[in-house]
């Protein structure tokens, strides 16, 4: 759980002839040292210094969010290695905010970012299939815990993907193929693309780091959390906080970015399709906690947290809560309401680009944190009452 500073306190003291002003050292951001996996996690004591959180259920306008870069590109059928090509267009990404920030959706009102693959009816192969893709602006992600709440399409013939990427041989991939789903089986494809995958012709199924377990739920029935925890020695894949598999070979050791994508190229061996009708993949949130390869950000962390991490025990480290998801996925106040560290400005100190997308409005400026100072304002109110020869000092310190 989130560790809190006790921000406010009251000092009542009797004034002595020598006025003793006791004030605490001003506080810093609560999570200035980083974000830790729970203590029973593997590897133990894993933590990350930076974060990217986006609440897509309440995001009104993607272009005001500076954390994400919607993609606009085309790929010919030949280059797409399928009978169809691909056309990633901004017009295939729609925001769909819930009515208010207190509203967390229901089975009838879903909300979330919509990534469309356009239906092609019964047309023959050869054109470009409309698709949707967005990537993080930050490309300095080196190890981390990457989580996305997604409701995949029930329309057959698309690939829904949530992945980390540097290039075709340095990639951590979760891919859901809608054509593989049926009433009795819900397979999901977990892949580390590596130099060995290149040798296998990028056919994921032939790569040594490929797993396709069946999910314990229907990924098209609601929002579920898909997650990969990438450390220097392993990549562990989770669905709704349940461990699916851990891979320990071909672990990438270079920085990259994360991407959400929904596409089809008609490849019989993979995406199949394209779908007959428009198919939508919904994204409820992204929560990414990661280390930065950027020396400036590493220095920032050193300054914020201190080389000895001596503030850790005082609340400078926040524990990332596991998603708790019911049978039908995350929906409504009971299970859809979810926690963002960035919702509370006091938690987050210059670890992100576009903090506070949770309010669905224009993002605030990137906030900095100076060592030894609260990034929020610390209001110090001193009321000195002198009554005769006695005085009472009331010092109240509270965050905003
Ligand atoms: C993340 O970076 C911090 C600071 O350099 C380091 O102490 C920590 O071990 C790193 N975490 C992982 C999982 O590598
Ligand atoms: C979204 O924000 C952009 C940039 O601020 C603005 O140009 C555009 O009109 C906005 N779109 C909507 C639908 O509000
Ligand atoms: C997308 O790319 C095409 C081709 O490069 C360009 O003509 C178009 O203006 C771009 N659209 C947007 C919205 O950036
Ligand atoms: C890609 O899709 C966009 C939006 O539907 C469309 O305007 C554009 O013409 C398409 N590009 C190609 C090359 O088909
Ligand atoms: C969800 O919780 C908020 C705040 O507690 C409340 O205002 C709202 O009515 C609740 N929504 C439903 C559907 O219960
Ligand atoms: C991918 O990146 C790695 C690490 O920088 C590099 O060694 C490799 O050559 C790249 N592979 C491709 C296919 O670009
Ligand atoms: C359901 O899908 C699984 C895996 O994709 C397949 O093995 C199984 O035969 C399918 N069952 C039916 C009834 O289609
Ligand atoms: C915040 O981080 C950026 C990127 O490392 C850095 O350029 C900037 O100086 C930092 N701001 C503060 C106040 O530390």
TrEMBL record:
The keyword Transmembrane applies. This is GH16 domain-containing protein. PANTHER family: GH16 DOMAIN-CONTAINING PROTEIN. The keyword Transport does not apply. Keywords: Membrane, Signal, Transmembrane, Transmembrane helix. One of its GO terms (molecular function) is hydrolase activity, hydrolyzing O-glycosyl compounds. Residues 36-294 form the GH16 domain. InterPro entries: Beta-glucanase-like, ConA-like_dom_sf. One of its GO terms (biological process) is carbohydrate metabolic process. The chain crosses the membrane at residues 376-395. Residues 1-29 form the signal peptide.
